[in-house]
């Protein structure tokens, strides 16, 4: 159990009521370990974002159970007292677009959430410096988002997600706006983070070329989750 980053049991989500009710996820089960790099691949409209938002405690499921680390956060209802605090402290988000705040410099963007969490600047500053060194972006602290390239801004979005020291990072098509080379560099960076920091990353992607970097691949099949290790996937392709 200690090695579990996230466990999902019989998770369901439908939208609407009566005749217009649509079941998107209907009985999803899976467990992810700490430090795993997981891809989520499925056709458009099949529920990837919906699943990610439930795992991130942003969207309320219809039923089921979500355990993050040792904590049951949802069991047919939210069990956490403060879901915003849970999100801020345990979960980082990266999106297709970086959503950096254009009028704040890079350092201010990356430190925004820790300061919202009322963390001490004496602790935050060295941590953010370390993350920026790690991502090879230390010389960009005082730059504005508009001065950086798409790939660089996406690295800053990773830095921002890491700044809270989350256990889990949820990334919704983080490389979709990048060319192949930059996409690979971002994915290599994400993989390194799982290996070196024990963070579990779930990444939605449409790009099959990125799958070899991942440990497991989740797909949505019949509104349920199908999970394959990278090894099984290779066998299936061959
Ligand atoms: N807030 C919502 N209200 C109603 N239907 C929604 C809502 N969000 C998503 N859906 C529906 O759920 C399905 C899955 O959507 P989504 O999770 O965005 O898919 P994906 O990310 O795989 O493209 C779609 O049919 C979409 O129309
Ligand atoms: Mg989506």
Summarize this structure as a short list of keywords or feature phrases:
238 residues, alpha/beta, Rossmann fold, six-stranded mixed beta sheet, four-stranded antiparallel beta sheet, 7 helices, 10 strands, 34% helix, binds adenosine-5'-diphosphate, binds magnesium ion
User: Rounded to an integer, what's the Rg over CA atoms?
Assistant: 18 Å
Which structural class fits the helix and strand makeup? alpha/beta
Q: Which architecture does the CATH hierarchy give at level 2?
A: 3-Layer(aba) Sandwich
Calculate the terminal CA-CA distance, rounded to whole Å. 34 Å
Poorly predicted parts: none
CATH level-four homologous superfamily name = P-loop containing nucleotide triphosphate hydrolases
| Domain count | 1
Average predicted confidence as pLDDT: 92
Question: In percent, how much strand structure appears in the residues?
Answer: 25-35%
CATH structural fold name: Rossmann fold
Number of discrete helical segments: 7
Strand order across the largest sheet: 6-7-8-3-9-10
Kindly provide the name of the CATH class: Alpha Beta
The gross shape turns out to be: globular
* Share of residues in helices: 25-40%
Number of strands: 10
Q: Biggest sheet: strands, sense, closure?
A: 6 strands, mixed
Sequence of secondary-structure elements = EEEHEEHEHHHEHEEEH
């Amino acid at each position: 159990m200690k090695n579990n980053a996230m466990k999902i049991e019989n998770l369901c989500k439908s939208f609407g009521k009566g005749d217009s009710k649509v079941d998107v996820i209907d009985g999803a089960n899976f467990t992810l370990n700490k430090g795993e790099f997981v891809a989520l691949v499925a056709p458009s409209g099949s529920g990837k974002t919906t699943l990610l938002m439930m795992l991130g405690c942003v969207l309320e499921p219809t039923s089921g159970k979500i355990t993050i680390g040792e904590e049951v956060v949802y069991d047919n209802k939210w069990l956490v007292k403060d879901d915003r605090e849970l999100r801020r402290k345990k979960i980082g988000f990266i999106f297709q677009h970086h959503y950096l705040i254009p009028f704040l410099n890079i350092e201010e963007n990356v430190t925004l959430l820790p300061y919202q969490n009322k963390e001490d600047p004496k602790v935050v500053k060295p941590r953010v410096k370390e993350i920026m060194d790690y991502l090879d972006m230390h010389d960009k602290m005082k730059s504005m988002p508009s001065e950086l390239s798409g790939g660089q801004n996406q690295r800053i979005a990773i830095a921002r997600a890491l700044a809270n020291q989350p256990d889990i990072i949820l990334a919704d098509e983080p490389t979709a706006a990048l060319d192949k080379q930059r996409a690979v560099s971002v994915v290599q960076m994400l993989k390194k983070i799982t290996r070196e920091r024990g963070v579990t990353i779930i990444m939605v992607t449409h790009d099959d070329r990125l799958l070899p970097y991942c440990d497991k691949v989740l797909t949505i099949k019949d509104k349920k989750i199908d999970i394959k290790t990278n090894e099984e996937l290779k066998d299936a392709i061959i």
